[in-house]
Amino acid sequence: MSAFHFDGLVWHWPIAIYLFLAGLSAGAVFFAIMLKHFKLADKAYLSPFVQAAAVIAPIAVCAGLGILVIDLTKPLAFWKILVFYNTSSVMSMGVLVLLVYQVMLFAWLGSVFSTPIQQWLKQRLPLLNKLLALLARHEDVITGVLVILSLSLGAYTGFLLSALIGFPLLNNPVLPLLFLISGLSSGAAATLLGGVLMRGNPNGVEVRFIHRIEIPMILVEIALLFTFFAGLILSGGQSQVAALNAIGEGFWGWIFWAGVVGVGLTLPLAFNLWMKVSSDRKFAYVAVTASFSLIGVLLLRNFILYTGQMTAV
Amino acid sequence: MDNSKRRFLKGCGGVIAGMSVYTVTQTPQANTTEQASELKYAMVHDENLCIGCNACEDACRQVNHVPDGVTRVNIERSGPFGEYPNQSYRFSRHSCQHCEAAPCVKVCPTGAAYIDEETGIVAVNEDRCVGCQYCIAACPYQIRFINPETRVADKCDFCQQTQLSEGLLPACVLACPTNALVFGNLKDPASALVKTLKSKPTYRDKVDLGTRPKLFHVRTIDGEIVL
Lengths: 313, 227
Ligand code: SF4
Ligand code: SF4
Ligand code: SF4
What we know:
The complex is a heterodimer of chains A (313) and B (227). Chain A has 313 residues and is mainly α. Helix content of chain A is 79%, strand content 0%. Chain B is built from 7 helices and 9 strands; from the N terminus they run H-H-E-H-E-E-H-E-E-H-E-E-H-E-H-E. Residues 23-33 of chain B have low confidence and may be disordered. The interface between A and B is large, with 36 and 39 residues. Residues 108-110, 112-113, 124, 129-135, 152-153 of chain B line the site of one iron/sulfur cluster (SF4).
């Protein structure tokens, strides 16, 4: 039995990347909205961090969907998922959320960036100008709906796996919450990384704001991971076997302890605490911390997907 | 601020209202259309009678055009148990259990995996399947597969498309030289199936998952006792 090929393995790494990108998009949007609402207000479109999120979120969600479609055994039939719906299927409802999410995402981007876009258009496309003005007027409604949708999208990736009743590690009520929180933190990290790469001030108000949320978020994530595995081990039976197979010796055990816990959680937590104390954030610190978080979440998605399918009931 | 809060709430209300309308329109009209079908197919595999000859698998392959490399039914052999010369093996049928509460049907996004209301057979609508493999991951019995020729989900359907439509028994049942396979209508007390179920102790796999499988097994007597 090798780490990437074993009996019973159905979903491979493309699904893990899809889960990662969907969560990342939801998280980036969530933090862009928070930044605008609590810190930047009408100047949000000038912030490189909001701009970064505005680039990352749509690209991530579209790329994720693209991967999902290519991974179907009949990619050309993907439109059937859009036409036929099954309310008892998490995937079906997730596709619906994803579609509405994308529409609202573009509506929100249109409203937040309506001023610069209108300046750039200079009355050239009157219809588009009217649309932008309309979006800007309804920005609060769009924002509210988008917050709900981004949180749903973040949790959906976890629900998708937890519906698999044959695998005790996946069929676990903590999983959607764990995926939601880690998805949000990957979105935060992507926003920070993109922002400083776009010459955002690494010591600016945006970074400070996100870092303030990031520390409690990492702590919650650690608590959730602990609950997740403690719950499995205390349940005994195949749940315990699944948990020990995952975090015990072997390739995935290494990925978990060194990758997810070490690089993904402990180092970012330490860096964040240290930056808070030294209150001097430099480009390199912010970029490295964010990259570690991103790597950690990507590894977590792969780790859960593969080890989850390793042990059946 | 007050105004924006109100509009925010309005937006949320809109989403919730939209969702409830959607849910209502999606509610199955169970009470109006369900006129309790007289048919519910099930199968018994008597592990005491089975000799592991694999005739069932071959017959299934032929009748249902199952390509090489995949199979709809598989007889798993374990053992040997006991000391030579009194050794024995245990043969267990591995195929779709036609669950009453089928996880594969529940998760399928397009409704391609469905339960035939008339017969209780869990079947696949090839035209609807997009090959997301969600059903394959969701089936706790790990018996679904992607057919390499049609590229859609495939599995045992009690020969619904081939034998049953011709009024014949499933191919595996006809091929079995020892009558280890009994197929029939659970709702018919006079059927060989119900008689077998009433005369022999049977078990079903993973019942604690709540899937209510309709594939019954008669446990082999000489098999080992597993805790
Ligand atoms: S055994 Fe698997 S494929 Fe067959 S009905 Fe049950 S869940 Fe579906
Ligand atoms: S692979 Fe086909 S039958 Fe299975 S869940 Fe996906 S669409 Fe449904
Ligand atoms: S044909 Fe009958 S005896 Fe032979 S393996 Fe199948 S069930 Fe057993």
